[in-house]
Amino acid sequence: MPLDDTRYLKGGPVAARIIAEVRAAADSATAEGFRPKLVSITVGDVAAVDVYVRNQRAKAELGGIDFEERRFPAELTAGELEAAIHGMNADPRVTGIIIQRPVPPHIPIKAIQAAIHPLKDVEGMHPASIGNIVYNELDLAPCTAAASVELLKATGLDLKGLEVVMVGHSEIVGKPIAFLLMSEGATVTVCHHMTRSVAAHARRADALFVAVGKPRLIKADMVKPGAAVIDIGINAETLADGSTRIVGDVDTDSVKEVASWITPVPGGVGPVTVAILLRNTMVALNRQRALYRETYGTSERQFAAE
Ligand SMILES: NC(=O)C1=CN([C@@H]2O[C@H](COP(=O)(O)OP(=O)(O)OC[C@H]3O[C@@H](n4cnc5c(N)ncnc54)[C@H](OP(=O)(O)O)[C@@H]3O)[C@@H](O)[C@H]2O)C=CC1
Ligand SMILES: Nc1nc(=O)c2c([nH]1)NC[C@@H]1CN(c3ccc(C(=O)N[C@@H](CCC(=O)O)C(=O)O)cc3)C=[N+]21
């Protein structure tokens, strides 16, 4: 189907709407002396991260949020990284911190995520933050998970009682999606590599989310006619001529003939993920402002913004 087919659930318009809201919120916060600033931490070189960070920088600029990339060599020790994070926690000009994954194997990612101050955790991966979604507090959730749910909502389907299947149960994507959907009233089945028949579950789904990291895992015969398919996978594929292209986890060419909605890759979940990161940056900033008011009894900032 051509890319203007309405069955394509495109991320661009959803992202643009979110970024416009971010821009309005960021401009008024800046005018009131609370300038939002997002710091991205990268350790080592990972191609998938480069695309994400490039888009973060471009969209932060559109959204009126300052952006700084801190890039560290792969040999950085966990202690050095924690020290850098503690410095950012203490710096009032830094209002949001994101650690790009993956980090090299010698760095314990869970401990590093926990080192970010929960008020500056714009990804919602600090244990205190991720716990909130279990308590139905959904305003700051891991970005890709929130983006995927946002795209399902763009179909207009009623999430209450919807049969949803999530393929993949990672901490950063599959599990948070399952919690967000449960909070919205959906009936959620979670599949993983030990699931006896992913196909048998997937075929029952009104909405099928896929975050596995295997190109074309989901074929047309695994999809219920009329379903919404949210393809979260981002996989680099090398073509015969040596060039590379990005494909998702869903065999889009065959599934598009069966599904009523399908997110393209690229152009689906990815752009919305970036927009949600910026929205989360504003949610975090507002929490910091609320604490500031409670502590000092004023919303006037006590130091000059640079
Ligand atoms: N669009 C975006 O913004 C983002 C996209 N991604 C992409 O999403 C994909 C998944 O990422 P992420 O969740 O971090 O990946 P992980 O590798 O952390 O998780 C993959 C999940 O898939 C499960 N799995 C593996 N093989 C199968 C199988 N054959 N059938 C069913 N389940 C299987 C694994 O189960 P088990 O643990 O039991 O082995 C695991 O839960 C990747 O392509 C990644 O690039 C990731 C982050 C952001
Ligand atoms: N802590 C952490 N959180 C993440 O969410 C995370 C991460 N680390 N590490 C890397 C992966 C990958 N990821 C992408 C998000 C958006 C695009 C994106 O914007 N993609 C565009 C591509 C556009 C282009 O090619 O320029 C699209 O799909 O249309 C890509 C990749 C987030 N990840």
Helical content class? 40-55%
Number of structural units classed as domains: 2
Straight-line N-to-C gap? 51 Å
CATH architecture of the largest domain: 3-Layer(aba) Sandwich
CATH topology of the largest domain: Rossmann fold
CATH class of the largest domain: Alpha Beta
> What is the CATH superfamily label of the largest domain?
Leucine Dehydrogenase, chain A, domain 1
> How much strand content do the residues show?
15-25%
Give Rg in angstroms. 20 Å
Helix/strand/pairing category = alpha/beta
Give the ordered list of helices and strands: HEHEHEHHHEHEHEEEEHEH
Overall 3D form: globular
- Count every beta strand, where a strand is a DSSP E run of 2 or more residues: 10
Uncertain runs are: none
Subunit structure: Homodimer.
Function: Catalyzes the oxidation of 5,10-methylenetetrahydrofolate to 5,10-methenyltetrahydrofolate and then the hydrolysis of 5,10-methenyltetrahydrofolate to 10-formyltetrahydrofolate.
Domain Tetrahydrofolate dehydrogenase/cyclohydrolase NAD(P)-binding: 142-288
EC number: 1.5.1.5, 3.5.4.9
Report on the structure:
The chain has 306 residues and is of the alpha/beta class. The protein contains 10 helices and 10 strands. The mean pLDDT is 95. The strands form 3 sheets. A 5-stranded parallel beta sheet has the order 5-4-6-7-10. It has a 3-stranded parallel beta sheet with strand order 2-1-3, sandwiched between helices. Strands 8-9 form a two-stranded antiparallel sheet. Strand 4, helix 7 and strand 5 form a beta-alpha-beta unit. The chain has 2 domains: 132 residues, Rossmann fold (3-Layer(aba) Sandwich), CATH 3.40.50.10860; 123 residues, NAD(P)-binding Rossmann-like Domain (Rossmann fold, 3-Layer(aba) Sandwich). Bound molecules: NADPH dihydro-nicotinamide-adenine-dinucleotide phosphate and 5,10-Methenyltetrahydrofolate.
